[in-house]
């Protein structure tokens, strides 16, 4: 191996070095600076769709920083108004009350957990091998279990199970939505979001007005009376009653109807979007080189603003805020 490496010519090394040069987004015009609105107590260490964990152990939710400190080396899985779901270094699922009391609950799984959610006494868990399970919160008894295809590789953005009244929607690591009745403990239906082999876990899902929208990194599904699917290399997605907006790996911002009918597209060469939010009459796309692009919902007009942000910062989307490093900006 050493001989093979030493035989590489300088010209070859320079060729590889040249090819590794990365193009970045450079706007033609910057309207001004989008100023920092406030700070949090520490930099962001872990991020998820429902919450983030700061370097000092404090919890950050969509509503702001909580005066709750989680143990060191615990991994944040999910958080709601009642429970903070974490994974201990030993592979156990540990639930901390959101009100900050000491009445924690531990499930001795000793195995890797991908995602989890809680509704009343039902705990829905998706394990890293794509196995789905329901447990009783009070008794810790196993209520339901279903195996699925073990994924080869997954996107780090893993969506947690979704409760819809008595239904549990497991968002699997192989691109499906598996619907289970939590009362009868029966599997009712499985819906394919996307069927790619790699990095195909469901990364997003929401239901508005009986219309379900879900996505992987490679495609999006809309499910109401009919199923509709479209292929996009998705970085971020936002869904409201007015429609769907998404950003792609090609630097595009795309507007769709709630049933995935194409409405508009705007391309920003070499842009790498790290956040997306729809507020009032604007679509806000956060670009990792430190730019906020504020577009009209029809994507016909936009302004670009400078943001004091490092490309390596972890991003968390709150209620009308983008959090990064130890600060945030308002977008409402």
Describe this structure in words.
With 332 residues, the chain is mainly beta. It folds into 2 domains: 24-67 and 234-332, Thrombin, subunit H (Beta Barrel), CATH 2.40.10.480; 70-231, 7 Propeller (Methylamine Dehydrogenase, Chain H), CATH 2.130.10.10. It is built from 2 helices and 33 strands. It has helices at residues 2-6, 10-19; strands at residues 32-33, 38-39, 44-47, 51-54, 58-61, 64-69, 75-79, 83-87, 93-97, 105-107, 113-119, 122-127, 132-136, 142-146, 162-164, 167-171, 176-181, 186-192, 204-208, 211-215, 219-223, 227-231, 234-240, 243-248, 252-256, 262-267, 273-279, 282-287, 291-296, 302-306, 315-318, 321-324, 327-330. The strands form 8 sheets. The protein has a 5-stranded mixed β-sheet, with no helix packed on it. The chain has a 4-stranded antiparallel β-sheet with strand order 2-33-32-31, with no helix packed on it. A hairpin with a 2-residue loop joins strand 19 (204-208) and strand 20 (211-215). It is globular.
What percentage of residues falls in helices of 4 or more residues? Answer: under 10%
- In angstroms, what is the radius of gyration? 21 Å
Q: What is the terminal separation in angstroms?
A: 57 Å
The third-level CATH topology of the largest domain is Methylamine Dehydrogenase, Chain H
Spell out the CATH superfamily of the largest domain: YVTN repeat-like/Quinoprotein amine dehydrogenase
Structural class: mainly beta
**Spatial strand sequence of the major β-sheet:** 1-30-29-28-27
The counted number of beta strands is: 33
Compute the number of helices: 2
What's the main sheet like?
Answer: 5 strands, mixed
- What is the average per-residue confidence, as pLDDT, rounded to a whole number? 92
Q: Report the uncertain regions.
A: 1-19
The CATH first-level class of the largest domain comes to Mainly Beta
In terms of DSSP E residues, the strand content is over 45%
**How many domains is the backbone divided into?**
2
| Level-2 CATH architecture of the largest domain | 7 Propeller
The best one-word shape is globular
